[in-house]
Amino acid sequence: MRIARFAAGDEVGFGLVETDTDSGEDFIARLSGHPLLGDIKLTGERAALADVRLLSPVLPTKVVCIGKNYAEHVAEMKEITGESTEEPVVFLKPSTAVSGPNDPIFHPSVSERVDFEGEMAIVISRPCREVPRERVKDVIFGYTVANDVTARDLQKKDKQWTRAKGFDSFCPIGPWITTGLSIEEAQDLEVTTTVDGETRQNGRTSQFIHDIPGIISYVSSFMTLLPGDVVLTGTPAGVGPVSIGQEVSVTVQGLGTISNRVVARD
């Protein structure tokens, strides 16, 4: 299933994104309740996908990010972030960084270089801690697309990543959550980032240094994950700067595309 969070007029809700068999057009079928609470059902209402505004599919308490998870990206960022490590590199983005499809990425005036980082993201289904590898599938609600936007010059200047990664709008997520994928399927998807239509990143989740069970097991060994929390899995090689006015699009095979334009903050 593809589960989206959307706004229609003054109302915000959840719905299933489906395709009309006759017209071939996508529509959204409204759900009652909250998908992560399990008590949902179709209301019978539907609308063309083009007539609603897609929002970030979840409002996480935290966004947990994995750095240095593609060998070629480690090599290209060696001067700033150093060598790869035996254990996953973990950092956090605040919930206030989260935005949705087509929302603007605000370019902070204090940064001279803002980079895109296209990634696949995992959405957690229930409270969990110290999850063994073999149980990781039981705590994954689904998968989505994310952009780990980074003020690269501030990352280098600060020698840690909180400010560089944490600006408002620096974590677009969407366009929906795709459920029903096995870990094995999610572990071999193409990740592509384009800027104004030009391909800048192209990798596969099969290139992860730390796989999905390893990531969730490691993070949950020291941090309780809550329903709706989002785990970013790392970005492939090819990261680079975007300028005000440019549009960044991140696509993960089978999960969809998010596009966001870079704008100046007033």
UniProtKB/TrEMBL annotation:
One of its GO terms (molecular function) is acetylpyruvate hydrolase activity. Gene3D superfamilies: FAH, Fumarylacetoacetase-like, C-terminal domain. Residues 1-57 form the Rv2993c-like N-terminal domain. Residues 62-263 form the Fumarylacetoacetase-like C-terminal domain. SUPFAM superfamilies: FAH. Keywords: Isomerase, Metal-binding. GO terms for biological process: carboxylic acid metabolic process. This is 2-hydroxyhepta-2,4-diene-1,7-dioate isomerase.
